[in-house]
Design goal:
Length: about 550
């Protein structure tokens, strides 16, 4: 261990709007320097960059060049901030939002860089939901055929995932589909850029690519969806690399980008949420980590295999080798709060917030936290971005009930916060009802900064919350994986114990508020179950899509 005192690793987290790099000491996980690079193109939702080509409803794309820029800008800057000699860095690890996937040539060139005027040639971000019709067909055909992998995903495949997105491309732009020699998760593509060697990780393949028991869905099943879809798994790569493994060595080109030594270890790619478990030292059975940001992803290792309705998936070795890894999630959380502030809060609230030295979010929170539970008379469904778990329907939409002429913005803001906590409670209760106990609820992500929101979650869940001890959970987790890939630790569990950070019982429920929230939660469940079939909400979306086509 003494040798690790003078050794360092880099973790790079590719998020929705930016990428961040952190320099971490191998011996104890100390974060010595970090840097963030905002994507130039951000989320591409309205039109293709530099063109007049408009995108349809529920589209969300990204630019590969933005990802390369993170390596060129954020990594050298983090190293400079840390004041660490590059020669002392022994490895680099990365993580990505998922499912973010792109079509490429056989040597990894993104089709968007060859055909920038074709929308389907661009990488589809995780929150691209325009493939819902394809997802619906995948689910219907799989259920009719009794495909054995379907229960491993809670009974439904998401429109966010690989097969639905690729099927959409096949059916809407077959020329682009045929031009793709590879379909690859951005988590694996960025590792390809770093090493010059193509690799595929077990995490994204399992959770987003329907890879179970050593295989993808059969060509027979895929042909039932579309005869031209058979053979799609051949573009996904067959040899899956274990998490914490060595994907390759830093290439000469990537060394120039990052200003790191050529030949250092590059760890196998991973998903931002799943890698955060190591950063929180929460890699043991029953430790559910909720990574709360624009959306929330719930991941949990377990030694039990069960069928949990509406889960995003259960994958062997999907979080740490040797355990089953469960995933669930909420498609929008922070995005809901941002949407409300951007579209529904009067301008004078911004003026008041500025006078108080606060952001609008902070000001609304300060007003909302003064209320007694239920004083606003509202209950909301947290479906503004659809429902990932447990209904797995991205054509659902948000609902707010109880508004009157006396309802104020802070009332709605609090009701929206509470709605996301109620959604989290549905997930926890569903897991436990299926026989997968949640022993500890650990919170990570940007929303951890809002202590009022955290207390609401503790009260609604009626359980203590543990808190990760890092503001850069995914980047720290990637650094921990890099340390394992570089040989500094025997495995992820050992590295997480040395380098991860977690505060237990950071928030404790108040019994009086918890009792009051039980009443509101009962109303949420009634509303949830009433709209769960999607009838009205689907009809409204269809009317919208026709009107904006």
């Amino acid at each position: 261990m003494s040798d690790n005192n003078d050794r360092y690793v880099i973790g790079v987290d590719f998020g929705t709007l930016s990428g961040r790099a952190v320099v971490v000491r191998v011996s104890d996980g100390a974060e010595l320097g970090s840097a963030v690079h905002e994507y130039t193109h951000g989320v591409i939702e309205d039109r293709l960059p530099g063109t007049a080509i408009r995108l349809g409803p529920d589209w969300a794309l990204q630019s590969p060049e933005d990802w390369r820029d993170v390596l060129r800008v954020a990594v050298p800057k983090a190293l400079a901030v840390a004041g660490v000699p590059a020669s002392d860095v022994i490895g680099i690890g990365t993580d990505f939002t998922a499912c973010t996937m792109l079509p490429t040539t056989a040597d990894g060139v993104p089709l968007s860089e060859l055909h920038p005027g074709r929308p389907h040639a661009w990488p589809k971000l995780w929150k691209h939901h325009a493939a819902q019709p394809q997802a619906d067909r995948i689910n219907a055909v799989a259920a009719e055929r009794g495909e054995t992998w379907l229960p491993r995903y809670g009974g439904k495949i998401s429109s966010e995932w690989e097969f639905a997105k690729a099927l959409q491309v096949l059916e809407e732009d077959p020329e682009t589909y045929r031009a793709a020699a590879r379909w690859i998760e951005a988590a694996d593509w960025i590792v390809w850029q770093l090493t010059g060697v193509e690799s595929r990780n077990v995490c994204t393949a399992g959770y987003k690519g329907i890879h179970q028991d050593g295989r993808y869905p059969s060509d027979d099943f895929l042909s039932a969806l579309n005869p031209d879809f058979a053979g799609f798994p051949a573009t996904l790569g067959q040899d899956l690399a274990p998490l914490g493994g060595l994907a390759g060595r830093l290439s000469a080109e990537a060394a120039l980008w990052t200003k790191l030594p050529e030949g250092i270890a590059v760890s196998v790619g991973n998903v931002d949420a799943h890698v955060t478990a190591a950063a929180a030292d929460a890699v043991r059975p029953g430790q559910m980590v909720a990574i709360m940001g624009t959306s929330t992803c719930h991941i949990m290792p377990s030694d039990e295999l069960a069928e949990v309705p509406g889960m995003c998936g259960v994958v062997r070795d999907g979080i740490v080798p040797g355990l089953w890894g469960y995933e669930a999630g909420q498609s929008a959380v922070g995005d809901i709060f941002a949407w409300f502030v951007e579209t529904s809060v009067p301008g004078f609230y911004a003026e008041r917030a500025a006078e108080a030295g606060m952001t609008v979010h902070e000001y609304l929170t300060s007003l909302a936290e003064r209320q007694a539970v239920g004083a606003h008379g509202l209950v909301a469904l947290d479906w503004q971005g659809g429902n990932r778990s447990v209904l797995v329907d991205h054509n659902l939409s948000g609902v707010i009930v109880g508004q009157t002429l006396a309802t104020r913005p802070e009332d709605v803001y609090r009701a929206l916060i509470e709605s996301t906590a109620f959604g989290a409670r549905v997930i926890v209760e569903t897991f436990e009802a299926a026989g997968v106990p949640v022993g500890e609820f650990v919170v990570a992500g940007g929303l951890l900064k809002n202590s009022f929101l955290m207390q609401v979650y503790s009260d609604v869940l009626r359980r203590p919350l543990s808190a990760i001890g890092s503001e850069q959970g995914p980047a720290l987790g990637s650094a921990i994986h890099a340390a394992v890939a570089a040989g500094a630790y025997a495995d992820i569990t050992e590295a997480a114990a040395a380098m991860g950070k977690r505060t237990q019982n950071a928030y404790v429920p108040d019994s009086t508020r918890a009792d009051a929230y039980d009443r509101l939660y009962a109303e949420y469940r009634r509303l949830h179950d009433h709209f769960a079939d999607g009838g009205l909400l689907h009809r409204l979306r269809a009317i919208r899509n026709e009107a904006t086509a």
